[in-house]
Amino acid sequence: MRSLLVLLLAPPQALAYRPLQTEDAYVAEHRRFELETSWEHFRGPDGARDHALVFVTNYGVLRRLELSLETPVVFRRPAAGPTGSGFGDVTAAVKALALEERDARPSVLFRGFAKLSNGDAPSGLGAGYTGYGLAAVASKKLGSRALHAAAGYGLFRPTADDRVAGGHFWGLAFEQELVRRWWAVTEITGARNVAQDGHPDPVSGFLGLIWGLSEKVHLDTGLRRGVSRSAPDWQVPVGATFMF
What residue segments make up the domains of the chain, in order of their start? Predict the structure, then answer.
């Protein structure tokens, strides 16, 4: 069950852009929508093979302000026991650009989020509690390359006694344009195990590809490998981003 549940319990990390989990320091264009969709396959150390269909909608409210909503549909396939499917916990977020990128200066923004508890926790579809947090993000373009770094802290209630627990999360990402409309991306991400079940903090690495089908449509895929025992052994995302 830990293959997908550990991601439900971890502090949310909004996508920099598909398929990365590390946030980036850019916002959607003013009065423009971005729709990100993905099919995610997870394999855990206990033999579970879970899936999630994820929808992320971003909207540029102002030139430096973006609102986003992430809605997952979860398909639980544990190694033993009943299966289940339904909506997972929804995450709403706001991104505020503090500094725009200059020649020698990265762009910097802050992101606040609220994670709801609408998912059915007894069935493994949600974490069973709400959470709130704030992250600081920096991004820098270097010719055909780009670097992203994010770190934040969230407050959650993962225990039956309603005790508040804090959890940090972080990510480092790198992208490289290979040829026209093709990019390679890689990252390492981590978070505190706020479940407090004795398992180590989840850490994972990722390697992926992005294909710019057009200026308004990007396709992506990749492979994520758990570095620590509490992260899913493998995660394979396949997704698309539409800008309009």
Answer: 2-243
